Here is the input.
Amino acid sequence: MKLLAPFALLIVLLFNTASVAFAAPDIPKPIGDIYVQDFAKVLNEEEKSEIIDMAKKLDSETEAQIGILTVNSLNDSDIESFSNEAFREYGLGSKELNNGILIILAIKEKQVRIEVGYGLEGRVTDIKSGKILDSYAIPYLKEKQYDKAIMSTYKAVYNEAAKEYDLGKDFQQQVSKALLKLKQESGLKAWEVILIVIAVIILIILDFIFFKGAITEAVLYMLLSARGGGGDGPRGGGGGSSGGGGASRGW
Amino acid sequence: MKNKALIISGVAAGLILIYGVTSYNGLVVAQENVSNKYSQVDNQLKRRADLIPNLVESVKGYTKHEQKAIDSVTNARAQLAGAKTPADKAAADQELSGALSRLLVVAENYPNLKADKNYQSLMDSLEGTENRLSVARKDYNDKVTVYNNKIKKFPKNIIANLFNFDKKQYFETTEQEKETPKVDFGSDN
Here is the structure.
């Protein structure tokens, strides 16, 4: 009989593992770099890589991670629970600092939200999140310019994070508030572009005449060497969590 | 022969003791998790209660004849401050949520109030806090589930009984509260 005691104990231990089921909304599994999860496919490749580059730079410097999630539908979940679940599943920000932010856009429900991790709640308060959405997202969203809404919201949030860590001008992104009536993209007029191209060609010709193209070569070299780098695998989340801070808007 | 029996029972007793100590510690950790999450719920409840006087002031500034809606909010707030147990707090919290949503519906009738910048900021804070509260509530309830399962299951229940690990209350809300009308400060006007 006494021999049986440890044996029985072992059996009990084996059967004692508690299993708790969580009813979680379906969060799509992240693909590639954690920063851009564009399941609604509203961003083009250029915009994606612009964001990923910005995000990596900030991540390397501060471990803060700012992510974007776009979905076609929330599947009957509300945007607050959905974004909180997604935030925790992706683990944005570092585990110790919880310094992540998630910008989430749901096309069908016409809702957008900025969810802020504990670590950045001091800088990006609920009020500030709401104001950023009002100024940088809603005007574009009403015009169905989803990508512009995301890009400018991302940059506005990014600038706040850069301020939090005193990263200086190097990290500041140029972004202006969207005007309610969107102005025509003025940009450069055709004749201005032609003038610039002619000027550059003249400069290159002069360079070749006087310096045998040394300056052109140097400029080309600089441009080419500035690219490259890379080669590392996709980056995942740092394990950060959020307690539900931030703000939501509909449009 | 006698020696052998002694050794076996000694080993068995040792194993049981080790198991007892580890499960006791496990229960302590689970209990600690519950109280940790509870304090977060509490924080958010306080945070919301702190926002209410401001809200009431700004509503008063723009409205007349809405004393009833305002009073029910202030009363519910006082009730919440007096609540002690999780169940009492949950009930008072629900009362407050109901009163608040009624006040916000009333506020809908005052365009000047709605356009007030302070009021809008206040709404963002309030909604943010409500959301944090629901996250904190869910986290708390999850930990309570884990803990309650632990103290009910054999053989941990023996140790739980021995050291008076009591069942923890959930912070429950009924469906009614979940359907609280969400006030949209319409970006569309």
